[in-house]
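Deliverable D4.2, example record:
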Amino acid sequence: MKKKLIVIGIESSCDDTAVSLIKNRCVLSNVIIRQKIHKQYGGVVPEIAARLHERSLIIAVNKAISYARINKNQIDAVSFTLGPGLIGPLLVGASFAKSLSMGLKIPLLTVNHVQAHILSHFIKKANMNNTYPEFPFLCLMISGGHTLIVRVNDFFQMEILGSTLDDSVGDAFDKIARILGLSYPGGPLLDHFSINGSSKKFRFSKPSVKGLNFSFSGLKSQVLQFINKKLQKDSFFVKKNLSDLCASAQNIIAEILLEKVLKATLKTGIFRVALAGGVSANNEIRRHFILFAKKTKTGNFLPKKEYATDNGAMIAITGLLKYEKNIFDSMNVTPYSKLKTF
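Output generated by the structure prediction step:
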């Protein structure tokens, strides 16, 4: 009988210390320790994030093993985020993962953070009829650092068809939120305040970008100019219209994203589309994605919100899939900050 592999996943690419254990593609435990201190700085401070990862990793690992109700000697491999991300936090995670691998005398598996977001769709839900995207499929990968349309031919055969020319969608959300006077992280607050707003109240124009690429810097400037003009006439304009402004900003961004996805389906002839990345937790984008799938009769795959934002489970499932294909790594690997080709 084939052994059911247990893989631990360690994620430390930004400000969340996340550790998960997966067995036979099912999550045994999924621990996330968030660093709330960065809110006072208006963004993630890499040096502080790295120091907090050093403190939190052993706590997260011990909790993950305890919640999974296993012994550490039952773990078959260690997987961790090699990049892209913040170098300081990545180095902390890499050092810890290498030490754990050597201490337990088990294989080491490096994981591409962006690829892991996409492969989170292959996590099994226990006691459920699981459906997974069939290859090839398209993936709209949206996060704080990336905005990509990816053609996924196999687990580790992916091709970037389109990307942002400037700001990522997550960055655009945060910057627009800041313009509206909201604190960091702005994206979730924008989503929260939009619930009671009208997405049609204020219309912003869409950027004209060729191909399957994106651009959000112009939209950010457009919103800033619009707000400044309105504030000159009414200093309480934002306060009076906050919900409508949030809803309208989210709506135009969702429209921009899905129009490019439609172009990608028509260009490739692939009508199976997955959503992935931290921004895929945004309610307005999820709503647009579901409506898009219904209108175009496209097979759509939404991640569970707990696997949309950064988490250890996506690292563990990617590591497990590499293990199944006998793709292992040496101790000489070095973290990288920028996205490399898949």
